[in-house]
Prior knowledge:
6-stranded antiparallel beta sheet
Amino acid sequence: xNGAKRIxxxxxxxxxxxGCNVNKGNAYEVVSGRPDFSDKGRENVLRIGAxxxxxxxxxxxxxxxxxxxxxxxxxxxxxxxxxxxxxxxIANRPAIASALEYAEKSGIEYLARDNLDLDPExxxxxxxxxxxxxxxxxxxxxxxxxxxxxxxxARKFDRLARLKxxxxxxxxxxxxxxxxxxxxxxxxxxxxxxxxEYIDQYIKTVQPEFVSFDHYSxxxxxxxxxxxxxxxxxxxxxxxxxxxxAGIPMYTFVQAMSYDNATRVPNEAEVRHQVMTxxxxxxxxxQYFCYWTPLEFGDVGSPSMITKDGKRTDLYNHVKAVNAExxxxxxxxxxxxxxxxxPVKGSEVQGEVKQIEMCGLSLDKIDAISELSCTQNTLIGAxxxxxxxDGFLISNFSDPSLLKKDVVSLRFNGADSALVYxxxxxxxxxxxxxxFEITLDExxxxxxxxxxx
Length: 453
């Protein structure tokens, strides 16, 4: 996207149309004083992960060269990804050790995959026994933790809970990483009567440090018709609210490839759209599927950021551009806790919006906002920090393929200024009569903090 198109467009005039239930009372008081998060840039770093690290030589007799090199790990860091997930190095401890060495030199972290998906009760394991498996590399500084399993059914939760207790004794401070199913998984996969029950059982039984799940929303049929999955917001609101209740962060995935005949190859706006949607629901880690194109994938779909034979695709540049914006945003975003989300149907949108209609846990009011209108479907993610300040992740939720600009107009109760993070910029904007208006390009979003001088 042309940089000039993404310059913040603000106006401060007019009385806005009502677009949803907002607060019209006078009880709310905005926090005074200009916010400044510049000294938190090193502390508040968003976890940006990606599935599939560069593979070792001749994986599964595929005949590929060794891609575990310093150059390849420097390339990961250049993209803005700071945690890479090893998949093909399982039980290949020399390869894991090499990956960890290169990750450390590149300044990123590595999530190892090894033979740790086991039952300590069945094997009669005791504290210290896991080190017998990982002792050749588990002291490496770049080791983020272990990718234990992906998309387990609920019948596996008891075993994972036993393993987690042992893991925490052997590897304190390391990630016990599990990724869960999305809402479109069937009950046989979930091994639960509903998705809500699946998430509830996981949190209650495993007692995780976070909940990670994948939901890939960018669809396209055989005729080139594009759409978003109907349940993308429903999935986010379920997990986000369960995590809020449990006091743990939510990790989410971004589709960065086409993996079958029903999914599309995202452009930059579509990558940004997914990221902003997930941030509006309070995601604490953006994860890309995938970095390296999975070697076992056939000819269906299209490559991810890096092809099987090691070439960059357009997606590499798309992700790199969006990650640069996250690096600008995270100093403020991570200072806030998620309160809830309000999806709003745009005034120019005709017919039913299934993604919004499926939501049942949306905010019905926001105290800091007295009036609101938008021309396209819009997400308002509401946040609060320790100083009592309000923050809002506002994004254009219309399908980016429609190329619709979204004019969002707000009146912030009592505010005369706002700190606005947009793309790679941040600026303080003065408001007239507390009014704020912005035009968001397709897939675009901002983080705004209203205040009173």
